[in-house]
């Protein structure tokens, strides 16, 4: 589930463990498998900043061709995660240099031991952006978009009441995508993939219950209604309520992990 799920687990014990290579990728085949394995190993800190990736070692370890290795490295370089250096080789870059907005990087970080810290950062980002997007949508959204949001809010309510997690997740991703798109701000709209990864990750790692609370569902209805009525203040307030509830539900998990994160920080976490 997503922000609408209001009573998630109060500790990290239910967070699922995902095997390397199972986190999903927009690419396919051997290239995707290698990319996932190396990308997640970097995000998890198994391959540390400053260490060097040897093409020959990757070929032998994963049983893939040189062309597959080179293509995976090319993609990692485009994400800012590695860089080729003369007389050194392919070197892993510090996390401060990564494209942290890349959906694949977000997916790997959510699959790593540092997922709680990543969720906190992403929730703070969304809290800064999505209420303003909702406010703008109340002013700029086409009538068709406003009507579609009302329909999505109704379907979200039905899916939430029925405990249909997969359907709820799909609808919630579309709801937040449409709010961002309806803001009329192309920069906000481009954050839709990032938001989708956050919503998916919270469900995938067991941080949401199967049934959301009615109050959270109502907040989604309130957002849609305010946008349809052209009331920017109400739209902002309702979306802020969604974000604040998400943050409140996650806060106990963040606090329980803060000591561990401080004592054992991932070597690649910025």
In the sheet with the most strands, the strands line up as 1-3-2
What CATH calls the topology of the largest domain is Four Helix Bundle (Hemerythrin (Met), subunit A)
| Coarse shape | elongated
The portion of residues forming beta strands comes to under 5%
Report the mean per-residue pLDDT as an integer.
86
**Secondary-structure element string:** HEHHEEHHHHHHHH
Structural class of the secondary structure composition? mainly alpha
CATH class of the largest domain: Mainly Alpha
Question: What's the number of structural domains?
Answer: 2
Distance linking N and C termini: 28 Å
Helix-residue proportion = 55-70%
The tally of strands reads: 3
Radius of gyration, in angstroms, nearest whole number: 20 Å
Q: Which architecture of the largest domain does the CATH hierarchy give at level 2?
A: Up-down Bundle
> What is the assigned CATH homologous superfamily of the largest domain?
GntR ligand-binding domain-like
Low-confidence stretches: 1-24, 259-265
Count, helices = 11
Largest sheet: 3 strands, antiparallel
In short:
With about 270 residues, the protein is mainly α.
């Amino acid at each position: 589930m997503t922000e609408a799920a209001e009573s998630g687990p109060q500790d990290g014990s239910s967070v699922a463990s995902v095997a390397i290579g199972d986190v999903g990728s927009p690419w396919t085949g051997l290239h995707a498998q290698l990319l996932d394995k190396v990308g997640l190993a970097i995000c998890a800190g198994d391959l540390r900043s400053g260490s060097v990736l040897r093409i020959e070692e990757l070929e032998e370890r994963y049983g893939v061709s040189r062309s597959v290795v080179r293509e995976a490295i090319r993609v990692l370089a485009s994400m800012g995660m590695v860089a080729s250096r003369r007389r050194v080789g392919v070197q892993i870059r510090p996390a401060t240099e990564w494209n942290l907005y890349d959906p694949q990087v977000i997916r790997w970080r959510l699959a790593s031991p540092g997922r709680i810290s990543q969720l906190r950062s992403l929730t703070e980002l969304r809290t800064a952006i999505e209420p303003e997007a909702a406010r703008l949508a109340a002013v700029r959204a086409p009538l068709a978009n406003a009507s579609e949001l009302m329909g999505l809010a109704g379907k979200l309510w039905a899916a939430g009441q029925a405990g249909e997690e997969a359907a709820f997740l799909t609808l919630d991703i579309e709801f937040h995508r449409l709010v961002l798109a309806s803001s009329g701000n192309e920069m906000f709209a481009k954050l839709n993939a990032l938001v989708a990864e956050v919503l998916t990750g919270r469900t995938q790692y067991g941080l949401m219950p199967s049934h959301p609370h009615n109050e959270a569902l109502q907040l989604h209805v309130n957002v849609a209604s305010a946008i349809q009525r052209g009331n920017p203040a109400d739209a902002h307030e309702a979306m802020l309520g969604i974000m604040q509830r998400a943050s409140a539900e996650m806060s106990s998990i963040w606090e329980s992990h803060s000591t561990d994160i401080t004592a054992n920080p991932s070597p690649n976490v910025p």
